[in-house]
Structure to design on (926 residues):
């Protein structure tokens, strides 16, 4: 953290607020330490931080003609063209103040942002039409907020201009609107100002100008003049400035409030690293955010990029107007997320660059570009589909992401973010999307007379964040200090034999796989490839001489190929009842020929693949059991080794852990993915009860039944529990995305958007939870993490992501051992070399040269200390391990000279046999 803070302070030494000062943003973030800067920050917000929630009048109030309210441009717009729905009723907040107040109180926010309906107060837009009933509605709302100690943040104009002003004056296209808006604001300050300390004049003038008077996507829906949006924007700026000066001169001295305008923006990343791309990014932001922010916060002028590209299409300010407009905001009110300025920017405003959702970078850019203003995020959030009810984990994780980015902006980047507003309080009319999406923290049942409100999962999450004032670090988040037992197994795994530099890693075990189809091409052990067998025998012996214990897998499942002998591969593979017997014979061959040197065997590696059918899995279980019994009966007495299988076990976490509706799907996925193979062997001798009952509900007969013989054959056929673990997923029962929805299990797969990705999520605590699942299910069974690793660009020899990954995953394994009592016996990093395991290697490869990556040195250091001992503490006292023998130099220094000749001849012979028997198999099919 201290390094990050130092870097942040260094970044601020240059002057801020000068034109294009935000240009340094992209370079600054490209230089921050990776992946440490991407890791989740556990910390809290300042004590006086503002937690808010918001709504807009037209979206939620309803009562569009009640109690003297006049029509707004949205009342008219929703009745024209091909519009399908209106906000006539919305969420009916006009009649449900008590329900909204209850929701606000439940959230625990300090501030509530809402907008005034101009036409409810002045039905025709002018003071002469004042409607006292409408005014009292807002008086009552403010009074009730005060009763629950929530401060109002009041927006004067959130897109719902009185229709009369549009019809008679042409709306914001007419400069006369400046004085009319000032008079409306004057009344609001007089009437409500004693109780309001935060005012927003206009919400998102970019949308009002560009999409109200340019594209016609929102009210009033005008799209006749391509230059009209710039004239409208000009009037909006002058109207805001007039209101600011009014407040500053006449109301601030006694009301002590603050006033700004809500500006919204996307974020954008360069498509290339060239300076030209950065300038295009800067110009894109200038055309959206800078259009209004530059005049208000800097010098009363439009951004140079806009003036250069638009020329005479862009109005100009006189000297007096510049002075009137500049410096007319008391804070920077920023909207971000699912707002129109993000979603409706066409390609012309991206200038060939890539749009992105990055609140943290946007905050930093605003801070640099506009002279470090205090920033109040006055709208932030995402959305879910309109048919979503109270379970909205997608919205919840976007909220988590945006709040976390705001926290990093404060703590790491030094930006003065004073508040955050989740959007919105309740579901309502979503402008051009009508009711097709929902953005509320509270679900509104539009089909009930009282518009019943229910808290969503996002509301519970937001309430918890507010209560904790952020994300305080918990003991389980802190790195653990301690060591593994003296006999702990440290290893590295690879998909194939690779002898280069194994010993330099410092491991005491090496896990690799044999190739059944190469060793026994015909499937008949009487015709085994003795050359390859001798090679394996020689290799395992050499490992032992180097004090590295071989761990051997008999069959490694891959989706690309079955790795079964040719004849079995062409005869229903694992569905063939002869395959388990053939596998047991193959296992006996390996035990007999290699068992003198191999004391740890994996029969099947990751057979529990979702592409494997239940019938295939059943035969794999039988094959494993036969191979285990063969060792137990015929070889264990003389060889004294251990045999088990290794299961793929990525962790599955409920998307919302407090919801039983999500806990059950997570359990179900684990039953189907891991319990499917684990329970018959380590548990009851049958498939998980939850698995059977779920399939029974679906009237599925796919799951085989264990007969009495198979039950006794399979149950208890293990010496340890081995898992391959790489990542974690979230699951929920609420369907949101058909591409990641598993219909058979009725679960939606998703990720936490704050997780580091590469390309799978990096979630170290998932390993600890997986290990505890094994302990809770199968008690004190010895456990090995047989493969654990992360993908990273092979060109990155300073593989900082893998360094981070190994450190944190091994640290979580230590917590499982020392804190949770998991009987953890060993850990294997995956993998040795990029050559055979692309993107996973501790070694890289440039042509014929082997490159040692940074992660290898770090892994070796962890092994050397047997974990993470306390700095300055007494060293762990373990019996010294035997030093490498003098005969190991072949492995250490000259790994390929003698071996490649042997391997080369073995491979050639094997290829010939495989091709021959494959061809023969095809001929026999005819």
């Amino acid at each position: 953290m201290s390094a990050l803070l130092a870097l942040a302070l260094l970044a601020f030494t240059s002057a801020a607020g000068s034109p294009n000062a935000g240009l340094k943003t992209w370079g600054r973030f490209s230089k921050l330490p990776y992946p440490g800067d991407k890791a989740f920050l556990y910390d809290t917000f300042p004590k006086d931080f503002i937690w808010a929630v918001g709504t807009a009048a037209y979206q939620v109030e309803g009562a569009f003609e009640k109690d003297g309210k006049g029509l707004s441009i949205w009342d008219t717009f929703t009745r024209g063209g091909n519009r399908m729905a209106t906000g006539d009723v919305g969420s009916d907040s006009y009649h449900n103040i008590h329900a909204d107040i209850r929701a606000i109180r439940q959230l625990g926010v300090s501030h509530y942002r809402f907008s005034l309906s101009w036409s409810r107060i002045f039905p025709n837009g002018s003071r002469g039409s004042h409607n006292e009933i409408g005014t009292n509605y807002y008086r009552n709302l403010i009074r009730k907020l005060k009763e629950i100690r929530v401060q109002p943040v009041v927006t004067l104009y959130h897109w719902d201009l009185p229709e009369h002003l549009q019809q008679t004056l042409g709306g914001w296209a007419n400069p006369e609107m400046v004085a009319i808006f000032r008079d409306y604001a004057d009344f609001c300050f007089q009437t409500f100002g004693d109780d309001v300390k935060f005012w927003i004049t206009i919400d998102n003038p970019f949308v009002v100008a560009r999409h109200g008077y340019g594209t016609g996507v929102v009210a009033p829906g005008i799209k006749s003049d391509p230059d009209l949006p710039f004239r409208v924007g000009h009037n909006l700026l002058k109207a805001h400035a007039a209101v600011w000066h009014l407040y500053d001169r006449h109301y601030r001295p006694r009301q002590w409030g603050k006033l700004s305008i809500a500006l919204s923006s996307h974020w954008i990343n360069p498509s290339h690293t060239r300076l030209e791309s950065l300038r295009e990014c800067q110009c894109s932001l200038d055309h959206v955010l800078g259009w209004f922010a530059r005049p208000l916060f800097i010098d009363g002028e439009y951004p140079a990029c806009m003036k250069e590209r638009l020329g005479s299409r862009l109005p100009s300010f006189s000297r007096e107007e510049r002075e009137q407009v500049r410096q007319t905001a008391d804070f920077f009110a920023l909207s971000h997320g699912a707002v129109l300025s993000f979603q409706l920017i066409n390609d012309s405003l991206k200038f060939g660059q890539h749009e992105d959702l990055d609140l943290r970078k946007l905050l930093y850019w605003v801070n640099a570009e506009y002279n470090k203003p205090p920033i109040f995020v006055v709208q932030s959030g995402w959305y879910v589909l309109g048919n979503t009810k109270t379970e909205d984990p997608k919205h919840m994780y976007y909220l988590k992401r945006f709040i976390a980015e705001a926290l990093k902006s404060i703590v790491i980047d030094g930006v003065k973010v004073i508040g955050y507003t989740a959007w919105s309080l309740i579901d309502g009319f979503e402008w051009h999307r009508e009711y097709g999406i929902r953005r509320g923290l509270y679900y509104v049942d539009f089909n009930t007379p009282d518009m019943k409100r229910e808290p969503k999962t996002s509301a519970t999450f937001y309430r918890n964040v507010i209560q904790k004032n952020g994300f305080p670090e918990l003991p389980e988040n802190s790195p653990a200090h301690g060591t593994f037992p003296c006999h702990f197994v440290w290893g590295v795994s690879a998909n194939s034999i690779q002898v280069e530099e194994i010993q330099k890693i410092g491991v005491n075990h090496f896990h690799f796989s044999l190739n059944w189809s190469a060793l026994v091409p015909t499937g008949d052990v009487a015709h085994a490839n003795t050359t390859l067998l001798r090679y394996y025998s020689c290799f395992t012996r050499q490992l032992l001489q180097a004090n590295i214990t071989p761990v051997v897998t008999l069959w490694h499942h891959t989706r690309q190929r079955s790795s079964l002998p040719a004849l079995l591969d062409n005869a229903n593979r694992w569905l063939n009842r002869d395959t388990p017997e053939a596998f047991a014979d193959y296992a006996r061959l390996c035990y007999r020929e290699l068992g003198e040197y191999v004391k740890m065997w994996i029969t099947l590696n990751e057979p529990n693949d979702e592409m494997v059918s239940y019938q295939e899995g059943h035969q794999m279980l039988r094959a494993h059991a036969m191979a285990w019994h063969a060792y137990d009966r015929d070889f264990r007495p003389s060889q004294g080794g251990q045999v088990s299988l290794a299961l793929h076990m990525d962790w599955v976490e409920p998307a919302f852990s407090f919801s039983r509706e999500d806990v059950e799907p997570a359990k179900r996925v684990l039953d189907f993915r891991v319990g499917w193979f684990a329970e018959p062997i380590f548990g009851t001798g049958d498939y998980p009860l939850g698995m059977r009952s779920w399939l029974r509900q679906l009237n599925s007969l796919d799951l085989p039944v264990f007969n009495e013989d198979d039950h006794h054959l399979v149950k208890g056929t293990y010496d340890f529990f081995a898992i391959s673990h790489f990542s974690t997923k979230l699951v929920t029962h609420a369907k949101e995305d058909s591409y990641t929805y598993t219909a058979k299990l009725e679960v939606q797969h998703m990720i936490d958007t704050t997780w580091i990705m590469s390309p799978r999520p990096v979630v170290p605590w998932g390993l600890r939870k997986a290990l505890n699942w094994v302990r809770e299910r199968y008690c004190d069974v010895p456990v090995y993490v047989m493969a654990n690793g992360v993908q990273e660009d092979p060109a990155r020899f300073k593989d900082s992501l893998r360094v981070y990954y190994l450190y944190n995953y091994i640290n979580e394994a230590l917590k499982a051992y020392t804190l949770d009592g998991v009987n953890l016996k060993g850990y294997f990093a995956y993998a040795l070399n990029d050559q055979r395991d692309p993107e996973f290697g501790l070694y890289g490869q440039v042509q014929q040269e082997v490159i040692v990556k940074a992660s290898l040195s770090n892994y070796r250091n962890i092994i050397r200390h047997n974990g993470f001992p306390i700095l300055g503490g007494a060293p762990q006292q373990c019996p010294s391990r035997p030093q490498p023998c003098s005969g190991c130099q072949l492995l250490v220094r000259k790994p390929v000279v003698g071996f490649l000749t042997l391997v080369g001849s073995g491979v050639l012979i094997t290829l010939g046999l495989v091709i021959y028997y494959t061809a023969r198999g095809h001929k026999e099919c005819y």
The mean pLDDT is 91. DSSP finds 33 helices and 34 strands in the chain.
